[in-house]
Design brief:
Chain lengths: 162, 162
DNA sequence: GTTGCTGCAAATTTTTTGCAGTCGA
DNA sequence: TCGACTGCAAAAAATTTGCAGCAAC
């Protein structure tokens, strides 16, 4: 799915849920659908307000005020509650948010470089066998999972990044 | 390895690292080695101070003062830095800590019930095939991973817990 | 015109830091 | 004794809440 289509899908889901589409929300959705990696609240806030200037055209953000961090928190939580975004944690002390794939579709996980912090997505975790085994052994119904792989990316291993 | 042996192993590792063994540290190590699930800092703090009374024998904690949260934070971070403890995150907004298995030994992951919060350990994640595939495909060296499975435990599914 | 969304201020919660006194080795 | 460890106070950082005004529908 293209980024534009992803953006439309999320915007549509918001509308159909009875939620309003506002300047900050449009900007945040655009940001999230175009990001290559999960974003923190602070990052979203900075990115959305970046390049905003009272003197120029500020229609993109909907007004004179910069988007407040609180607004970002509230919207991020809303997206997560609606199942439109996912909250991930890379051991940094705060959460990161990224668009969630449509339910029943293929999801992805992350390869996180511990040296440069770069994040790469990967698909196909294939946890089904493990899940089946555990459900049989432990009397537990597995409904979701969190999987992150940490290590060193090629660039860092070659000393390109330090 | 028994819990007592685990406790001795960690205490020994501390000593051999040149760190001091104090009342709070003994109490926290005891707690961590006996816990069946990862503990938060607040939980450790409460548990260690529980039942302490200025009037009775307080040798177990080493003095009259209750163990401070800051001390727990500092010791937990020390254990993690030394590779003796692991920090996990169940999406609750704070970290939990648990003893780390000796390196190269078998490690474990968790089955977290989203209804009652109960945590069960499981061994054998068998991520080697996935890791190999990804290292070949992505030019990335995987060094560690984080895996948590969320779902519903048997008791909750049967309505025992609500 | 409603009602939800936003910004601002303030409160809460989690985690870290500075410092002086204390205790382990 | 000497320096690491601890408690206390305070700071820093992440996140939530209350409320009045504004804007989406």
């Amino acid at each position: 799915m293209s980024r534009a289509a992803e953006y439309d899908r999320l915007l549509c889901a918001l509308k159909q849920g009875g939620y309003r589409v506002t300047g900050p929300r449009r900007a945040l959705l655009r940001l999230l659908t175009e990001a290559r990696e999960p974003l923190s609240v602070q990052e979203m806030c900075s990115a959305v307000n970046d390049g905003r200037d009272p003197a120029e055209d500020v229609a993109a953000a909907g007004g004179d005020d910069a988007v407040n961090v609180v607004t970002v928190y509230r919207f991020a939580n809303l997206l997560v509650d609606l199942g439109l975004a996912r909250r991930v944690e890379f051991g940094q002390g705060y959460y990161r948010y990224e668009c969630e794939e449509p339910q029943d579709g293929p999801h992805h996980h992350h390869l996180v470089c511990r040296r440069c912090g770069r994040v790469e997505d990967f698909h196909g975790c294939d946890l089904a066998p493990l899940t089946s085994r555990l459900e049989a052994e432990h009397d537990f119904r597995v409904e979701s999972h969190q999987l992150e792989l940490y290590g060193t990316c090629g660039a860092c291993r070659e000393g390109v990044n330090g």
